[in-house]
Amino acid sequence: MTSVTTNAAARRHGAWRRNQRRLAPLMFIAPGALMFLVYVVVPIFRSMSISFYDWDGMGAMKWIGFGNYVELWSDPAFLVSLENNLIWLVLYMLAVPAGLFIAIFLNQNVRGIRIYKSLFFFPFVISQVVVGLIFTWFYAPDFGLLFKLTQMLTGTGTAILADERYATYGIIVAGLWPQIAYCMILYLTGLNNVAPDQVEAARLDGAKGWKMLWYVIIPQLRPATFIAVVVTVIGALRSFDLVSIMTQGGPYGSTRVLSYYMYEQALSEYGYRMGYGAAIAVVLFFIMMVFISGFIWKMYRDETER
Amino acid sequence: MFPRPIQQRPAATRAAYQVALPVALILWLLPLLGVAMTSLKPGADLTQGNYFGWPSHLAWSNYADVFRNSPIGWYILNSFKVTIPTVIGAVALSCMTGFALAIYKFRFNLMIFFIFVAGNFVPFQILMVPVRDLTLKLGLYNTITGLALFHIAFQTGFCTLFMRNFIKSLPNELIEAARVEGVSEVRIFWYVVLPLMRPAIAALSVLVFTFIWNDYFWATVLTNGVSTQPVTAGLYSLNGQWVAQWQLVSAGSIVAAMPPVLMFFAMQRHFIAGLTLGAVK
């Protein structure tokens, strides 16, 4: 009796033995993939389908086809958000050259430079909520440093965040602060890997300053630049925290971006319009997909070249 | 090396550089220094209009006040309760997915990998309504578990990207040799690959810790109230209560920022290795 069970066990063991090369990947991948499927992949498609309904999140869902999208098209708040996203995207790109500039400035071997590098990186480590509060204080009307400064220079103080014309730019500046730090660290790592013999060779050929930077250094920094651009684009389109902390979309909705407007529509005192919110999210998703596809395409090329 | 080492420059340039460094740093961190100083001002200074001068005396009591008169201690505890399980969960899951995607050749390998990568970059808003709905249905809305579960799943995307590339760069001969010896796949993972992954695990742990600690969006979507909200969302609601008491807002901000900052300084090297997405070595 005992010998029979051990035989069966051995046979089962043998089956595992023989097939483990085939079964092991499945086993290793299943838990992570399942979680990711449930919380990320499926919700993307669920959002797409919800965007075709009129839904308050609890009651019955009413199919309205492209109704939400048609409404978006003539919704001024949506158009303002879209425009602001574009402004974010363009201005956020300044983080890339600015990060490169600081990285070049710091790429020296002097005493204490490591501390300097980490302190320059500091803004990226702290939460955007804290960054938002810091800049709100910096911009505050009446006593804020910037208000005082403009008062000194022009006679009347400007309260950036209360002014429709400047508020978005004020938030973007706050966002650039940590983003520049991120790009800086990418470039510092990149500069570390620039081939010294090529730099020396170029130097012997008389290249220096801007010429050296443009023709020798920047081409070698391409991997760093690529990552910097990717994370900056994603960061710009994901901007939510700062808008929520600093202005809550105001004044008069002038600082809304798609991510914030979506939240406002779907989940705030303005109402629980889940379907409409989902439609906004889908638009944002497709804008981001343009960049994500580019990233994946490059990864795919790198993979198949190997 | 670029730019030309400062040591090869004239003495004047060197001196200028030594001066420029601290000046640039102070300008760069000016907003932060301002907040640090404000956090140490007695409330009377602010009411008398001393916003940017030195504090009349160092009011460490602001920090005590923040802890005594607000639930910030709870918020911080909640943050730890969400962050630590997320770090463990996401890193553990991605060690396995990364291993599978890096070591084995099977159909859809690259496709699965790219789904993880792409998913990691999608806007949060496209997930918001369904994830909130799912969390409600599971009865996990406004619980630490509900928030941590989502974070684990989402961070697995980024961590898989990182782990898979890291394992791919390990020498394949090690694994082949173990297979020839007849070591089972599970043991190869546990005894051969996992010990080599320590630097990657360290890098991801610090990075995920910072990401999750600083998360604000999901905290507002999936939790509310003192018993579950992490410190980012908590600080925001406290900001509403502390109208114009900037010394408290500042002290609270500094307290909330501390854990990731300490983490960063303790594990800097790993942190930076993680940030470069493993692409710029």
Report, as a whole number of angstroms, the end-to-end distance of chain B: 17 Å
Shape-level CATH architecture of chain A:
Orthogonal Bundle
User: Strand share of the residues of chain B?
Assistant: under 5%
Total discrete domains of chain A: 1
Largest sheet of chain B: none
Helix content of chain B: over 70%
SS element count, helices of chain B: 15
Q: Structural class of chain B, please? A: mainly alpha
The CATH class designation of chain A is Mainly Alpha
Largest sheet of chain A: 2 strands, antiparallel
CATH names the topology of chain B as MetI-like fold
Radius of gyration of chain B: 24 Å
Structural class of chain A: mainly alpha
Largest interface: A-B, 102 and 98 residues
What's the N-to-C terminus distance of chain A?
55 Å
Low-confidence stretches of chain B: none
How many β strands of chain B by DSSP? Answer: 0
Cα radius of gyration of chain A in angstroms: 26 Å
Give the tally of β-strands of chain A.
2
Shape of chain B: flat
- What's the mean pLDDT score of chain A? 88
SSE diagram, text form:
The complex is a heterodimer of chains A (306) and B (281).
Chain A: H1 2-50, E1 53-54, E2 62-63, H2 67-73, H3 76-92, H4 95-106, H5 113-125, H6 128-139, H7 145-154, H8 167-192, H9 196-204, H10 209-220, H11 222-238, H12 241-246, H13 258-267, H14 274-305
Antiparallel strand pairs in A: 1-2
Chain B: H1 11-28, H2 30-38, H3 43-47, H4 61-69, H5 72-103, H6 109-121, H7 125-137, H8 144-168, H9 172-180, H10 185-196, H11 198-213, H12 217-222, H13 231-241, H14 246-266, H15 268-275
Helix pairs in contact in B: 4-14, 5-8, 5-11, 5-13, 6-8, 8-11, 9-10, 11-14, 11-15, 13-14
